[in-house]
Amino acid sequence: MVRVKICGLTQADDVRAAARAGADAIGLVFYEKSPRAVSITQARKMLQALPPFVSSVGLFVNADPARVEQVLEHCPLDILQFHGDETPEFCRRFGRSYLKVLRVTGETDLRHPLDDYHDAQGLLLDCAVPGQWGGSGQRFAWWRLPELDKPLILAGGLQADNVQEAVRIAQPYGVDVSSGVERSPGSKDHDKMAEFMARLQGL
Ligand SMILES: O=C(O)c1ccccc1NCC(=O)[C@H](O)[C@H](O)COP(=O)(O)O
């Protein structure tokens, strides 16, 4: 079954609901300009609500390394996700598992990023939207992703009504969703999360 990360949660109750729905991972946005940004205090409460075997992913956008270190000091994150223009050297300097995000518009050549970010745990493909780093709710034209020895995660504008088609076309290792399962930015809709997960059953 395709793995699922639900991103942009801001409340412990939503963390519990995401886990109940069957999410494999949750994403916490440590980017102050996002409407889904969480403080360290908030993140700690949310991580305490996380049951075993559900991973926590911390998102950063061109952050100061000291800020990443500060978050890591206080928050037991499993994986870092770099959503900006971070270099491979930047991504690996924390000695943690990481995902590198590629913002794509069409069929993007994945070979160069694969070489550059060879130690990434996976590459996450999100829709490139001018002026926005992520969580846009916009999709790109899905295409059949190549078989690489690196997990590819599909994101951007996914929701219950289109996730089956997206998975059928792209055949990714995993999917990542944020605004498609929200009531408003940062507030997850528990029914939408459950429906999203239900549509992936058996795929
Ligand atoms: O969610 C945000 O506000 C955000 C801000 C800045 C960088 C990344 C952000 N979210 C990243 C995610 O992982 C989203 O899940 C991904 O972009 C897909 O979002 P959506 O199209 O809303 O499902």
From TrEMBL:
Entries under Pfam families matching the protein: PRAI
Isomerase found in the keyword field: yes
Molecular function GO terms recorded: phosphoribosylanthranilate isomerase activity
Reaction(s) catalysed by this chain's protein: N-(5-phospho-beta-D-ribosyl)anthranilate = 1-(2-carboxyphenylamino)-1-deoxy-D-ribulose 5-phosphate
The protein, known as: N-(5'-phosphoribosyl)anthranilate isomerase
Taxonomic source organism: Acidithiobacillus marinus
Record-stated family: Belongs to the TrpF family.
Gene Ontology biological process: L-tryptophan biosynthetic process
Organismal lineage: Bacteria, Pseudomonadati, Pseudomonadota, Acidithiobacillia, Acidithiobacillales
N-(5'phosphoribosyl) anthranilate isomerase (PRAI) domain ranges (all copies): 4-197
